């Protein structure tokens, strides 16, 4: 809004050049880009100054940073791990190496405390005195230790606070503080002392009580062992600090110890102790035992590997023997199968031959039977006639020659048929003579024919000669029998 020229002139008269600057500043605030550029130029210095002032920046940004990191890790954990790898890797390795060194050191200390003569001596002392082994070990390795701290209100003599170190047994602190006050009063009343006359040290065996008397409080330390000079300085500084921080509470103390809350941290700094320093040495005992265990483990692994190798070799040998036996059995089986096949072929051949032979024998038997039947009919149908009163036979007679051949052929056929041939020659005569003469002539004719046939080559056992009167003629007939 520029207004009228009069109003503009009035503004120039009232604000002059500052009005133009205000307009420019207003335009800068209304323009987000200009405002952001302005804030960006000073935001780092502003954050640094506010953080240095009260640390509110860290508190304000912590929830946002935590949410951002949580979201980044959840959305892409690999990228976060890659970013942290250069930092986390060396840190993890260093932590593991430190843990291993501590473990070796602890292991070596345990071995020394368990196996050394000194540890057994401490255990004997613990058994003899009825104390724990930890207490005996602490006493033998300790130079000094502040076991108890007493803070006593000087004016009233009441105990304001009392601290005890670990593993230390304490009597009633109220009684002890009263005794310290009573001893101080006894010394003041009994002896003429110069200066302030305050009791600053008590000695009882290995225990020393250091006492610091301040205007409003008394601080006492119960020390076991050799008291170093710095303990007296620590006692004085602590007493001064208590008076600086709790001076009003000490002045107005009426028996209520609640204003002294938090004073334990100051008194706790007085519970110091120092052990005998031992030269740092390599844990040779742990190394030796570790090397022994590693050697035993390596020997066991070697023996195990050898045993496994022997088992593998034995298994291979057994498998090889089984394979050889299996191969041998396979070969034997193949041979048996080949022999069986050959036997089957031979058997089949024999069967075929037997069948052929059987067929041939059957055929031959049939042929023989036919031949025997034909020859038998032919022989039985044949006959040889004689002249009257004649019994002689011409061996070259065609009928005799044919008969001889037929009987020989029949004998051969009967032998092939495994039969016995019997040819009976029946001699006949006519009725012209007497019966006896005819009987003799019939028998003579049969015998002569039998002899002729024998001479022709027919075996004698085949032929039988008999007389017969069945036919009235001068002839011989034949009867064939097979057995």
Question: Mind describing the biggest β-sheet?
Answer: 6 strands, antiparallel
Q: Percent of residues in helical segments?
A: 55-70%
Q: What distance lies between the first and last C-alpha atoms, to the nearest angstrom?
A: 168 Å
Which percent range describes the beta-strand content? 5-15%
- How many strand units? 10
Shape: elongated
Order of helices and strands: HHHHHHHEEHEEEHHHEHEHEHEE
Q: Residue-averaged pLDDT, rounded?
A: 83
Write the layout of secondary structure elements.
Blueprint (H helix, E strand, L loop, with lengths): L4 H11 L1 H14 L1 H23 L1 H20 L1 H39 L1 H13 L3 H9 E12 L5 E6 L8 H18 L10 E4 L2 E7 L3 E9 L3 H17 L1 H5 L12 H5 L4 E3 L8 H98 L1 E3 L12 H19 L4 E9 L5 H21 L7 E10 L2 E8 L1
Parallel strand pairs: 8-9
Antiparallel strand pairs: 1-2, 1-5, 1-6, 3-4, 4-5, 7-10, 8-10
Helix pairs in contact: 4-5, 5-6, 5-12, 6-7, 12-13
InterPro entries: OmpA-like, OmpA-like_sf
Keywords: Coiled coil, Membrane, Transmembrane, Transmembrane helix
Protein name: OmpA family protein
């Amino acid at each position: 809004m520029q207004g009228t020229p009069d109003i503009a002139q009035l503004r120039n008269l009232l604000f002059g050049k500052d009005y133009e600057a205000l307009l420019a500043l207003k335009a800068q605030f209304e323009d987000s880009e200009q405002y952001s550029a302005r804030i960006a130029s000073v935001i780092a210095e502003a954050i640094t100054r506010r953080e240095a002032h009260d640390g509110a920046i860290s508190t304000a940004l912590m929830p946002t940073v935590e949410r951002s990191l949580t979201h980044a890790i959840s959305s892409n954990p690999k990228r976060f791990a890659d970013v942290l790898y250069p930092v986390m890797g060396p840190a993890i390795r260093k932590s593991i190496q430190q843990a291993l060194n501590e473990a070796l050191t602890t292991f070596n200390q345990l071995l020394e405390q368990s196996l050394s003569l000194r540890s057994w001596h401490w255990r004997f002392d613990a058994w003899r005195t009825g104390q724990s082994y930890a207490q005996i070990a602490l006493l033998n390795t300790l130079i000094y230790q502040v076991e108890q701290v007493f803070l006593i209100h000087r004016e009233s003599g009441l105990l304001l606070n009392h601290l005890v170190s670990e593993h230390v047994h304490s009597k009633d602190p109220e009684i002890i503080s009263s005794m310290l006050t009573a001893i101080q009063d006894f010394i003041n009343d009994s002896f003429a002392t110069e200066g302030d006359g305050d009791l600053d040290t008590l000695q009882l065996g290995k225990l020393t009580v250091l006492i610091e008397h301040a205007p409003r409080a008394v601080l006492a330390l119960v020390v076991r062992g050799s008291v170093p000079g710095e303990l007296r300085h620590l006692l004085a500084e602590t007493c001064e600090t208590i008076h600086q921080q709790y001076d009003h509470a000490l002045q107005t103390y009426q028996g209520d110890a609640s204003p002294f809350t938090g004073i334990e941290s100051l008194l706790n700094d007085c519970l110091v102790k120092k052990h005998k320093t031992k030269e740092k040495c390599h844990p040779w005992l742990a190394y030796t035992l570790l090397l022994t265990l590693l050697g035993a483990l390596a020997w066991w692994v070697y023996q195990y590997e050898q045993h496994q190798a022997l088992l593998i070799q034995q298994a291979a040998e057994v498998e090889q023997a089984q394979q050889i036996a299996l191969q041998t059995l396979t070969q034997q089986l193949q041979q048996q199968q080949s022999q069986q096949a050959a036997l089957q072929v031979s058997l089949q051949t024999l069967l075929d031959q037997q069948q052929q032979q059987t067929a041939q024998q059957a055929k031959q038997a049939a042929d023989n039977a036919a031949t025997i039947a034909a020859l038998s009919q032919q022989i039985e149908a044949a006959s040889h006639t004689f002249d009257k009163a004649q019994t002689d036979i011409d061996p070259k007679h065609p009928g005799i020659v044919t008969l001889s051949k037929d009987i020989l052929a029949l004998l051969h056929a009967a032998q092939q048929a495994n039969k016995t041939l019997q040819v009976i020659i029946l001699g006949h005569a006519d009725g012209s003579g007497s019966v006896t003469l005819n009987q003799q002539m019939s028998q003579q004719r049969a015998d002569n024919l039998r002899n002729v046939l024998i001479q022709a080559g027919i075996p004698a056992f085949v032929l039988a000669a008999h007389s017969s009167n069945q036919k009235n003629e001068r002839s011989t007939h034949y009867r064939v029998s097979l057995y």
